[in-house]
Every structure is written in structure tokens, then in C-alpha cells.
Fold:
Amino acid sequence: MTSRYRPETGRIIPPPIVKGRSPLKAAVALLLVALALRAWDFGNPVIHVDEQYYLLVGDRMLHGALPYLDIWDRKPIGLFAIFAAIRLLPGDGIVASQIVAMLFAAATALMVYRGARRIGAAPLAALAAGACYLIWLPLLSGRAGQSPIFFNLFMTAAALLTLRLPALAAREAREAILANGAAVCLLAGLAIQTKYTPAVEGAFFGLAHLWYLRRAGGRWPMLGLAAVLWIALGLAPTLAAIGIYAARGPAAFQAFWFANFSSILLRSNYAYPAELIGRRLLGISAQLLPFAVCAAFAWRTKPRSEETLLAFAWLGAALIGFAVLGTYFDHYALPLLAPLAIVAAPTFARAPRAMMATLAIGLAIFTIEALARPSDAAGAYAVARVVEANSGGECPYVFTGDSITYQLAHACLPTAYAFPSTLAYAPEQGATGIDEAAEVRRIMAGRPPVVVMGSRPLAAWNAASHAVVAAALARDYRPIFSAPRSDYRMIVYLRRDRPLRR
Structure:
């Protein structure tokens, strides 16, 4: 079926979802796609540095650690709460977190399917859009538990509800718009407590609801009350987090506020050369090109339904959220995938060759990368075994490398700043609220039994921190083990006065 144009209203009416086409079938199909794409990574603890640390923080929260005080990062506490909940599941959390992330990804793909249907895509094209979302996640470092894997579900569900607005306004269903906006803003609030950048998309959703509430006949007092209600619901999860820390006293509140809101402004993006930033942007643009081409063709198709315009506006809001981060790591583009897949779906419906080409390109890149990528899991577990055997109940120190080593080695943390990049690399210098080199000196003065360090830096060194560790390693430590990691090696150093244990 195709969209219908009603000249008497000037509206484009997308085709209705055909009854009898069960969303359950689409859900099962997308879950199987997600499983096929992600299962061979199950059990790998070092897929990406970020989710390693999220899992470590979640694990330590269950042992009484309070984020921002006992273990430091600048992500919202909602993200760590997800990983703390995952640690309640059986096992060491590695496979459990990957399965939960897979379920979130599949559920988001189902939301993409439904969003594509709502803007007029045929069932097969909508299903292809959901599959493309899943295929492109690992191409942008979303193979496991990056934060967008979780908050994309909240934002895509909110977008799906927002796409109802034209129909609700046409019926002058003001109460329904109020309830719809409340659900959307609460979903956005949950996303914001997973990462703060979805606030841009949440603001767009709120403004869209105000626009359509006015069009449905809402008077200015109703709009004012609606805005207050929706803003309160959007802020509620963050205000709850603030309240938890404020109740613990000024020191806890100050630590929370600095980590969540002040430290990011101190982080130096200039430590990343402009050439590197350019290469990252070029790589992201190349990865997203098939989607962008299909979206451009969909945009050129006229007349456009209001639902389609809303979907494109959502994509614009997501692009703003992506742009403000500045450093342009590839996983920062993960929030673009859901709106891109939805707006590309009508092109898939009109041009099956474009749909097949997009799927083929994505699967080809995925396969090539998967076959070329070495598995670092065995080396990571081997490093952890050596660290555990030689720590003797004391706290080892991972200066650079994998923060998950602490968890795999059942080790204590020598510092609250356990994410290695925080103390080791220049972009974080001056952004942590402490003297990073002084903290490294304190750690090394405690003579950790074992130090783990990569054979090369992955960013510009914090020169003062690196000098402290380099001098201590040369004077007091000897290398006892190394394991390959991509194009470098992880090296384990043992204090010279300690016997080697295997």
C-alpha cells in the first residue's frame, strides 16, 4: 500500500499497519538477527574499554562503592545502575551484560520497524530497516554494551510515540497528547540518566508535543501546564539522582555535580589532533553513507507526510547531540542509527535494489571486520590470571589497558580513578578535579605488587603521570608476562622483591 494525499486537509496519510501482520513475527526475526550478529562475541571481556568499566562500576556498587566518590567516572548513575542490576544475574557479568545488551538492541530494532511502518514503509522494508540498525551497531563499536545500546531503546520508543502526534492533533485529542507527552518525556528522562546527550532529542520531542497540542486546540494555560509537567518528568530521574547524593551531604553532592556536569567542560579535546578528528569524521561518514543516500532519496519524495517530517526532525536533533561532543569517536554516532534507519525505510520500500544493496554492504563490512579482527579474549583472561596469582591480596594497578582486569582477577582497586585513561592520558588532564600525576605518585608510592601497561599509548600521554610510572617500572619492576592486543601488547610487571607465581 502507498501513502494517500488528502487535498482537503493538505495532509499525507501513511498507509495503516495491516492487521494480521503480527509484530511478534518481526520481533522474533529481529531477535534472531541480533543473536546471529552478536553471539560470537559472547564471553569476550575486552570488546571495548567503555563497557568494561561500566561493568566494573556496577559490580563495585553491589559491594558498597558509591560512584563519583569511591569509583569515579562522569557518566550518569543510571547507566551504572543498569550494570549493577546485570551483576545480580548468574556469572561474572561478562556474558550476562552482552545478552542484556543484545535484548535492548533487538527491542530497539523492533521500535525501528514500527517507526518505519508508521511513516509508510511496507512490512519488508520496515523489517530491513530494523535489521540494518542491528547490522550497523557493531560497525560503530556497538558490539556489546555501549551506553547508546541502552538509551537508544528509550529514545526510539519516545520517537515512536511522537509520530502519533499528527493523528492525535487531527482528532483534537488534547488529553491524549498530554498523556503521550508525559510518557515521551519520562522515557527521555531515563535516557538522559544513561547519557546526557539525549537531552537534545528529548527537548525536540517536548517542543513537538507543544506544537501539536496548540494545533489540537490547546489554549496557552494548558500549554504552560503541559510544559511544566513534561519538563518535570524529563528531569525527574536526574533530580532523583541529585537528591540521593544531596541527602548524603555536601561532599557527596559536590562530587556528583562535578563529575556529571563540570568535568566535561574541563576535558581537553585539543589533545586529539585535528587530523585525527578529521579521520574519525570521515570514517563515520563513510560508514553511514548507505543510510544517508537512502534518506536523501526519501526526503526528495513529495509530498511528505507529517510523520516523515517529524522523523527527519528527530534525525536533526540526534545530529546536534552528536556534534556537541567534539571528539567524534565512532560510537558517538550510534544514536544516529535508529532515526537514519527509519527515514531510509521508505526508499527501501520504493527501491528494493537499494534495500538489498544496503543490507549487502552492511553485512559485507561486518563480515570482513569480524574475520580480520583478532580475538583478544584469551589474552585478557591470561593477563587476569597472572595478575591474580601475583597480587597476593594487595591491589594491582592497571595504568593503561583493561579495567575489567580488576574484576577478572578478583582484585581490589588502588584508586577511585580506576578507568585507566583518566590518569594516564592527556585529554583527561585537569578534568578530574585532582592532580592526576599526584594520584599516580600516591599509587606507586604504595608499591603495588603488579602493574599492567600497554606497550604503546592509545592517546597522548599525560606526561607527568607517565614519567612517574616509567621511572618506577625501570627501578622496581620486571616484566613477567605479555599478551597480544590488536597491534600492541599488554605487559604485566611484577615488583622485583616478589617471587613469580604461576
